[in-house]
Amino acid sequence: MGRHRAHQLAATNVPAALQAARGCPDAWYRVQALASVAEHADPKLALSILEEAAREALACHDAYGTVAVLSWPLSVAMARGFRDFVERELPRCLALAGQVTPAASQAYALETLWTACFAVDAHWAKPVWTRILALCHPDRSWRAARLYLHVAERQQGKSPDGAARVVRAMPQGKTRSWLERRFGLA
Predict the structure, then answer these.
(1) What is the DSSP string of 71-138?
(2) What is the distance between the alpha carbons of residues 120 and 58, in angstroms, rounded to a whole number?
(3) What is the mean pLDDT of residues 82-101?
(4) Whole-number Cα distances in Å, 70 to 42, 130, 182
(5) Does 90 score more than 90 pLDDT?
(6) What whole-number distance in Å separates Cα of residue 78 and Cα of residue 125?
(7) What are the CA-CA distances from residue 59 to residues 28, 67, 121, 126, 182 (Å)?
């Protein structure tokens, strides 16, 4: 309720939206709600709200929750031009990604983060992609395979050789062979 209410109010009543966001009992929803409010707040307040959201993300029950939910405030910060915030929080988030277990959850958390970054600016997605390559072997789980598929599809949508670049970066294995066939690279 609080997340939905904060989102409804954010465009017209930032103080009430902020109150609703802070009232969310679960950190996952609280961080999302705070990010929604930060989208509409004046820049100085927005940055303060994003800082709060980053702190609240640490209250998630595990590393998976923290990494995945940080995609919301990071996305808002990127879109609003809060470069210092992103340059500080994205590396912290990526470092924490190594602690996410099991491997399928790690792949999903990084997919959520990569998608949020790529949607705003491909520049911000590059360090996430580097971390994906380091942590998520595409044959380790179905979610890892899907992660590579989604990255390849999105990259293909941006440039004609996008999928090929993703596939060439992948380690050899079943998923790479599947994606080579899927994108006509084999």
Answers:
(1) HHHHHHHHHHT-HHHHHHHHHHHHHHHTT--SHHHHHHHHHHHHHHHHHH-HHHHHHHHHHHHHH--T
(2) 23
(3) 97
(4) 21, 18, 32
(5) yes
(6) 11
(7) 8, 11, 28, 27, 40
Beta-carbon count within 10 A of 185 CB: 15
With beta carbons less than 8 A apart as the criterion, state whether 111 and 145 touch: no
Q: What is the pLDDT of residues 31-89, one digit of tens each?
A: 999 999 999 999 999 999 999 999 999 999 999 999 999 999 999 999 999 999 999 99
| Look-up of token digits 């924490």 | 96
pLDDT reported for residue 186: 85
How many other β-carbons are positioned within 10 Å of the β-carbon of residue 68?
A: 25
pTM for this predicted structure: 0.93
Helix (H, G, I), strand (E, B) or coil at 11: coil
Residue the block writes with tokens 């209410």: 5
CB proximity list for 39: less than 8 A, separation 6 or greater: 10, 46, 76, 79, 80
What CA–CA distance (Å, rounded) separates 55 from 59? 7
